[in-house]
Amino acid sequence: MFNFEAQKLNMEAKTSFDFQLLGLKQPLYFFALSLTKNEADAEDLLQETFLKALLYKNRYLENTNLKGWLCTIMKNIFINEYRRKSRNQTVSDESPEGKGLVKLESPKGSYPETMYQVQEITAAVERLDDEYKVPLNLYFEGFKYKEIADIMQLPLGTIKSRIFLARKQLQAPLGELRSSTSIPEKDC
Fold this sequence. Notes:
Layout: H1 2-23, H2 25-36, H3 39-55, H4 66-87, E1 90-93, E2 100-103, H5 112-126, H6 130-140, H7 145-152, H8 156-180
Antiparallel strand pairs: 1-2
Helix pairs in contact: 2-3, 2-4, 3-4, 5-8, 6-8, 7-8
């Protein structure tokens, strides 16, 4: 009898949470729209927020501000997506004369060296062993270390180490590439 009552209470809590979640759809959509400035992106952001909320509803504390919790989830998803898009445009350059992260821009037709560099960087990454290449690619797609560890089902320290070692392995080929080609300075 006790298990049946516990299951019934659990079912009511799920229904209550889901009902409250759906009740906040419109205000959350408007918040998403204020962040994205685009209806299609706002709908995607809302959908992703609902998905995360449902996945992590066990972390929601009853009788707290559900709308605030959902807005925080939405804002974090939006920020992470922005960072993910920004990272997709960068490559790590840890050579002594390098400047850390170098932004890759679309070549402007008259820079064949740039196309060559992008091809060489891609080829250097592809030559890495999968144990280093996979976490590095996930990292540059914008995933956090913890997310990569969860995806690959490996300890967090192992992921950090593999990404570090992948960068170290890329330093030599990318350093040679940096010294063998030069990108013309843009006129300011």
